[in-house]
Design a protein that fits this description.
This protein is α/β, with parallel strands linked by helices and about 900 residues long. The strands form eleven sheets. The protein has a five-stranded parallel β-sheet. Helix 12 (about 475-485) crosses helix 13. Its cofactor is FAD; [2Fe-2S] cluster; [4Fe-4S] cluster; siroheme. Pfam families: Fer2_BFD (PF04324), NIR_SIR (PF01077), NIR_SIR_ferr (PF03460), Pyr_redox_2 (PF07992), Rubredoxin_C (PF18267). Pathway: Nitrogen metabolism; nitrate reduction (assimilation).
């Protein structure tokens, strides 16, 4: 029985849980819904400061910060609900919410609280408007006077932008921790005079010791950001309800002073969003948050909590990314198998770049921070400080009492060794290093002649060391994604394994992932590769444009015009040029010497099998076939002793044909009204269909006619890779259109058009391109889509990976195909029309052309044949079948 999982909160941790549960083996057992308070799906809060790079809300929201689109959630079968949860009815298992359209309620079997936290606003006079305080919405902007902001969401940043555009020149940030310095970076980017106020004696007191905090303060002051530590905030100065200044008592002063400012950003810590849990009577943590056990289960067996709202054991709420991801993973395991995973604590190590200054803090266990072992007050922990006053860098490394183990450390100004030191702190020894050598960055004895632990990739990490601490990925896991998923760029790596989607530190230009990528590509022979081969210094896309503009019609013309070298090409460039020539001009593959540049299958218009014989698969548009055609097919197969089968694409196939018999087989099939199915080519294979309104009582449209129309329109179309299509007559989707390169699903108003899906070894769900299309619109959009793909894709790249690499993804494709944003719609349609006008059945031309027939002869100087077949055949299920060799 399917269980309903409701996730409240679609932030990074809520989405991490959704990704893991929908990607698990038990995904089909759950129907997942998520209640999202913000007007957009999950995005990366850690990287909010990037929002100010060009101050383009739409670009950053959807292209850079976003983790997932609404369509991608639909593809995962996740129900996205925009609204704010107001109450939980535990007895009825319902959650009430408000949204832009009113109020609503949704039921659950399992409830996951991923509500995160809200910014703590200190109770300073003038900081809030008490009568407008909203217990159900702690971050309500209406509860703050004009000019007081928090730094948490895209809406917060939009408000800051609006204030800056209105003429604000000076900003004060309250809080000198991680969040405060991120906020300081935001106003710094807005070219405002910036002040940071910290009540502690130095910056980042939770992660750093005093000496490190002072070095950080100096570096930030040197950037032009004014740092005030050890201050007491007395009140916010208001003029008619608008901020004009802040009164504070500076360290060492006796009289408060007023610091004039146009706005205040409060970023001095967070508190768990636990108001829903309190309302429904769940047991709370000692300092707030929902008390959960090691299975992340609350006092109600049907309610769980993860992320900043989860009080682990009732004591600790983690405010960092990595612990939340680990909690999400543990919860998914426990939902599938109760008690299978215990979550007790997380590593709080972190590396950040604050206002351009590298800062890192790492430790062997949580005690390093909770017991402040880095302060030097624990007699069992010894430390060595290294300070470079010329470059303003500082490091403190903490060791066990006997100096045999690295317990942790803090780094300011230079954190290049963070990953190496973090991994070393997890080990039981110093791996041949000595404490002073680590502190002062001296290589261990014999290092110059030894083998690098990182294999020479420059990361300083062994294969099982963690390279992305936010997601918990080892170096070997990221390398595996690069190789197996062909993730050859940083954006592709992010999609392939999620590395770099947290704080982003590991994928910065000085991070470990770019080093690993460069080294791996070099070993794969891809680092310095340019062009498709030694004969052409152009990519397939560049070569396509050149051949199109110059109207080159043969391989010799292409080689002579833009190639290099005096040879006849190679096995890399010849098939690529053959594909481009066919995609542009669609001339017969075997004429004018083009047979010499084809792959084996294209050269004989059939698929070679393991016996050296060929399979012959005629076209069967839409699967619609007459009894007479079936009889003709069977007669030919029986005549030539061929094995017959309904193929995986539900077409008729005959197997075991000899090369010299192929022209005669083609002639018999053509004479019976059949055509080549081009199962041998990188071309349209088939358009699968259900029976639609022809017979089915559920049918909405005539899917068979639609499939026949599409197959007849696009037959013969050559592309970088094979193309499969389908037409389903209703939403029951019997033709599996959402797993095809092009698929249409009938609705009452027309057809929904899907693109860029595929089955096979790496199945990909198709993306919705357009809805309720007429037949004419389907064909128009498909014409444009296919020719855009053929014009821009890499050789042997299917539509799904092509779309994954296309900057802007499906939304950009919609603009090109439907809105004609590039102004090339008519050109793409003309290209398709020219391609279609040249389409001819390749089998028919061979069958009735004596010169083409000769290309299938066994001997160059005679039509005679010699049967030298040495294959043993056996009878299997009434058919002739090659015997399978089994070693003794």
């Amino acid at each position: 029985m399917t269980k309903a999982i409701l996730v409240i909160g679609h932030g990074p941790i809520g989405h991490s849980f959704i990704e893991k549960i929908t990607g698990s083996d038990a995904a089909s057992n759950y129907q997942v819904s998520v209640l999202c308070e913000e007007p957009r799906p999950a995005y990366n809060r850690v990287m909010l400061t990037q929002y100010f790079e060009d101050r383009d809300a739409e670009k950053h929201d959807q292209m850079k910060l976003s983790y997932v689109t609404e369509q991608e959630l639909k593809d995962l079968n996740v129900n996205l609900i925009y609204g704010r949860a107001m109450s939980i009815d535990r007895e009825a298992k319902k959650v009430s919410y408000t949204s832009a359209s009113g109020t609503g309620a949704t039921s659950y079997d399992v409830l996951v609280l991923a509500t995160g936290s809200f910014c703590f606003v200190p109770p300073v006079p003038g900081m809030t408007i008490p009568e407008k305080k909203n217990v159900n919405w702690p971050d309500d902007p209406a509860s703050r006077p004009e000019g007081v902001f928090v730094y948490r969401t895209i809406e917060d940043l939009e408000s800051l932008l609006a204030k800056a555009k209105s003429g604000a020149k000076r900003a004060v940030v309250i809080g000198g921790g991680l969040l405060g310095l991120e906020a300081a970076k935001a106003v710094y980017d807005l070219k405002m005079e910036s002040h940071v106020l910290e009540m502690a004696p130095y910056l980042m007191p939770t992660q750093l010791n005093e000496a490190a905090g002072q070095v950080l303060s100096k570096k930030i002051n040197d950037l032009g950001v004014h740092v005030h530590c050890g201050v007491q905030i007395k009140r916010v100065v208001l003029d008619d309800g608008t901020v004009t200044g802040i009164e504070l008592l500076e360290k060492g002063e006796e009289t408060p002073t007023v610091l004039n400012t146009d706005l205040i950003i409060v970023s001095c810590g967070v508190r768990p969003r636990d108001e829903l849990a309190r309302q429904c009577g769940l047991e709370m943590g000692a300092r707030g948050g929902v008390k959960v056990n090691p299975s992340l289960q609350s006092s109600d067996e049907n309610i769980y909590a993860i992320g900043e709202v989860a009080a682990i054991g009732g004591n600790m709420c983690y405010g960092l990314w990595a612990p939340g991801v680990e909690q999400a993973d543990a919860l998914v395991q426990n939902l599938q198998q109760p008690g299978s995973s215990e979550y007790l604590e997380s590593d709080l190590s972190t590396k950040l770049k604050l206002l351009g200054v590298e800062v890192a803090s790492f430790g062997r266990s949580a005690d390093f921070w909770f017991k402040r072992q880095f302060d030097g007050k624990d007699p069992k922990v010894k430390f060595i400080d290294s300070k470079d006053e010329i470059n303003d860098t500082y490091r403190r490394l903490c060791f066990s009492e006997d100096g045999s183990k690295l317990m942790g450390g803090v780094l300011v100004g230079d954190a290049k060794d963070y990953s190496k030191l973090l991994q070393l702190s997890k080990k039981e020894d110093l791996a041949g290093n000595d404490p002073a050598g680590l502190a002062f960055k001296r290589p261990p004895p014999g290092a110059a002649t030894g083998v690098a632990v990182d294999g020479g990739d420059g990361t300083g990490l062994a294969d099982d060391d963690t390279i992305c601490t936010c997601i918990g990925l080892s170096k070997s896991q990221v390398r595996q994604a690069i190789i197996e998923k062909e993730a050859y760029t940083i954006p592709q790596i992010k999609k392939a394994c999620k590395a770099g989607t947290g704080c982003g530190g590991c994928v910065t230009p000085v991070g470990e992932v770019p080093k690993l990528l460069a080294h791996t590509l070099k070993k794969l022979g891809k680092a310095t590769a340019t062009g498709i081969c030694a004969h052409f210094s152009y990519s397939r896309r560049e070569l396509f444009d050149i051949i199109k503009v110059k109207e080159l019609k043969s391989f010799e013309e292409v080689l002579s015009s833009v190639g290099q070298g005096s040879c006849d090409g190679c096995e890399l460039c010849k098939p690529i040029v053959a594909s481009i020539l066919s995609g542009l001009w669609n001339d017969h593959a075997l004429k004018a010497g083009r047979d010499q540049i084809q792959d084996t299958n294209d050269r004989f218009l059939a698929n070679i099998q393991k016996t050296g014989t060929y399979s012959v698969i005629p076209r069967c548009p839409g699967g619609d076939i007459t009894p007479d055609t079936l009889i003709a097919f069977a007669t030919t197969a029986k005549k030539y002793g061929l094995w017959t089968k309904i193929t995986g694409a539900q077409r008729l196939g005959m197997y075991g044909a000899k090369i010299h018999d192929l022209p005669d087989i083609y002639k018999e099939l053509v004479d019976a009204g059949m055509e080549t199915g081009q199962a041998y080519g990188k071309a349209l294979r088939t358009v699968k269909s259900c029976v639609g309104t022809s017979w089915c009582r559920y049918g909405q449209q005539d899917s068979v006619t639609m499939a026949v129309t599409m197959e007849n329109r696009y037959k013969g179309l050559r592309a970088p890779h094979k193309i499969k299509m389908a037409a389903s007559g209703c939403l029951r989707e019997c033709a599996e259109a959402q797993g095809k390169d092009v698929g249409v699903i009938a609705t009452q108003a027309g057809y929904n058009l899907y693109v860029c899906g595929n089955g096979g070894a790496k199945p990909v769900h198709a993306k919705l391109l357009a809805t309720d299309c007429s037949v004419e619109q389907v064909l128009k959009y498909t014409d444009r889509f296919l020719m855009f793909y053929i014009s821009t894709a890499k050789h042997l790249q299917r539509t799904a990976p092509w779309l994954a690499e296309l900057e802007g993804g499906i939304e950009y494709l919609k603009k090109v195909v439907i809105e004609d944003s590039l102004g090339i719609g008519a050109d793409l349609e003309t290209m398709m029309e020219k391609n279609r006008s040249n389409e001819k059945c390749e089998w028919k031309e061979v069958a009735y052309d004596e010169e083409l027939r000769k290309k299938f002869n066994q001997f160059a100087n005679t039509d005679a044949t010699h049967d030298s077949e040495q294959i043993e055949y056996i009878d299997m299920r009434g058919q002739r079948h090659p015997n399978v060799y089994s070693p003794p």
